[in-house]
Recover the amino acids of this structure.
């Protein structure tokens, strides 16, 4: 079953068996995790396709419009604000913090290192447990760092840091000349119509609870304003809003951040923890390997609340799970299982194949089989106007390539150069080399030479070919 919602984008297109499997998963999660309530939703291709909830109150359950505190999912919102500054040319990810926020004492750390938690900063601010105490106890940014704030060499490892995102929030305020909360509202919440995502709770919202570990008893958790730590974990949101935000993290939105920039956020930025090769971190985005899929999103927790948002770009699926318990429900696993249930039971139906719109016959001259040494590769022209290079047998270095305009501005000629988009050759240049009569001689890929025949004397093979030939 699905929860009712006023969201006009909701379409209940999932099969009944899939819906029951999703409901079963959250029912088990709420019961075994002993959470007062749990609400979840799944969206696909920007449309809410399922939502459900379980509650300990008979006859009353939250829906996709009920607010929960989302904790560190707030960091992803803050990272989007920073990436907007980068895209506008107001900062570079390689800039030292000191350039934009002088006097912190950790000014040598870069914006990129703060976004990716690779600056080596301590995990928590000094003093009392900051999530259960008022932010008024830390009135200044310096109160979030304290003495000995750097624990590890910068850039060497991933070490999660809440104070690092307080610093990034301060950078946003300095460069925008406004509060973090107002910049967030103006630049993300309004354009994406996230009307139920707020800095302070707005009814209807869930109350935060602690459940006794050895008894079926509950205790209300205090709600604290985090003050200068707000960019690390302050926000309240709903399953419906987070599905919309997750769709943005998959597709981008020109009003907020381009598809290329959100893709950059989802790319791994730091080495994985030596003890956990199944997870990683991008730029304000957590990454996880689950069942052969790479998920991108973020988890969140504050006393009384657990939250998780996962996305899978290839399937176009967003899953959200929210609970109002300090601990208990395995919220990250629940959200991942919801996504996998839909992807496995109802895999995406691919778009119909279509030919290239602007076909260039001159490019057929370079399509087909090539050799790097004795390794056979295929080079295919694809409908988006790019090239795909892939090994014809065994493992090899495959990449996709996009055309770059020639110096004369001609972006159509077969003599254009090509830039690698992924894999080993990401960013590298593929060039078509020709003989004096204009015929194709070979391909130059980042200085590697690909020829039509393996080590033929007639080919332009660096180092030459043994005169006695094959034997």
């Amino acid at each position: 079953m699905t929860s009712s919602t006023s969201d006009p984008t909701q379409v209940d297109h999932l099969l009944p068996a899939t819906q029951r499997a999703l409901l079963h998963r959250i029912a088990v999660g709420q019961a075994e995790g002993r959470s007062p309530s749990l609400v979840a939703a799944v969206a696909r291709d920007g449309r809410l396709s399922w939502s459900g909830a379980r509650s300990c109150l008979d006859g009353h359950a939250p829906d996709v419009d009920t607010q929960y505190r989302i904790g560190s999912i707030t960091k992803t919102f803050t990272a989007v604000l920073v990436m907007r500054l980068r895209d506008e040319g107001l900062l570079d990810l390689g800039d030292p913090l000191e350039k934009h926020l002088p006097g912190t004492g950790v000014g040598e750390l870069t914006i990129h290192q703060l976004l990716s938690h690779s600056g080596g900063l301590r995990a928590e601010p000094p003093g009392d447990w900051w999530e259960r105490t008022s932010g008024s106890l830390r009135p200044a940014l310096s109160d979030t760092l304290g003495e000995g704030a750097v624990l590890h060499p910068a850039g060497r490892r991933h070490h999660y840091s809440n104070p690092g995102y307080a610093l990034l929030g301060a950078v946003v305020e300095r460069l925008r000349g406004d509060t973090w909360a107002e910049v967030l509202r103006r630049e993300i919440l309004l354009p994406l119509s996230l009307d139920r995502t707020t800095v302070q709770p707005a009814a209807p919202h869930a109350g935060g609870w602690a459940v006794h570990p050895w008894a079926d008893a509950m205790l209300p958790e205090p709600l604290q304003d985090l003050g200068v730590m707000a960019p690390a974990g302050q926000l309240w949101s709903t399953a419906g809003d987070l599905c919309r935000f997750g769709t943005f993290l998959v597709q981008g939105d020109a009003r907020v951040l381009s598809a290329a920039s959100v893709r950059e956020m989802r790319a791994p930025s730091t080495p994985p923890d030596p003890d956990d090769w199944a997870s990683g971190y991008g730029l304000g985005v957590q990454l996880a390997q689950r069942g052969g899929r790479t998920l991108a999103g973020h988890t969140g927790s504050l006393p009384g609340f657990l939250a998780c948002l996962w996305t899978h770009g290839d399937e176009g699926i967003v899953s959200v799970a929210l609970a109002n318990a300090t601990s208990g429900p395995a919220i990250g696993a629940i959200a991942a299982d919801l996504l996998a249930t839909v992807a496995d039971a109802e895999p995406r139906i691919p778009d119909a194949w279509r030919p290239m719109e602007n076909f260039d016959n001159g490019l057929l001259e370079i399509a087909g089989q090539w050799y790097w040494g004795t390794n056979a590769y295929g080079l295919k022209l694809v409908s988006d106007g790019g090239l795909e290079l892939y090994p014809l047998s065994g493992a090899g270095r495959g990449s996709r390539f996009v055309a770059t305009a020639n110096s004369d501005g001609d972006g159509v000629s077969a003599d254009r150069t090509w830039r690698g988009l992924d894999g080993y050759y990401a960013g590298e240049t593929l060039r078509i080399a020709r003989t004096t009569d204009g015929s194709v001689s070979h391909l130059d890929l980042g200085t590697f030479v690909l020829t039509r025949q393996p080590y033929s004397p007639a080919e332009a093979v660096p180092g030459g070919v043994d005169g006695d030939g094959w034997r």
Observations:
- Residues 1-9, 407-413 have pLDDT under 50 and may be disordered.
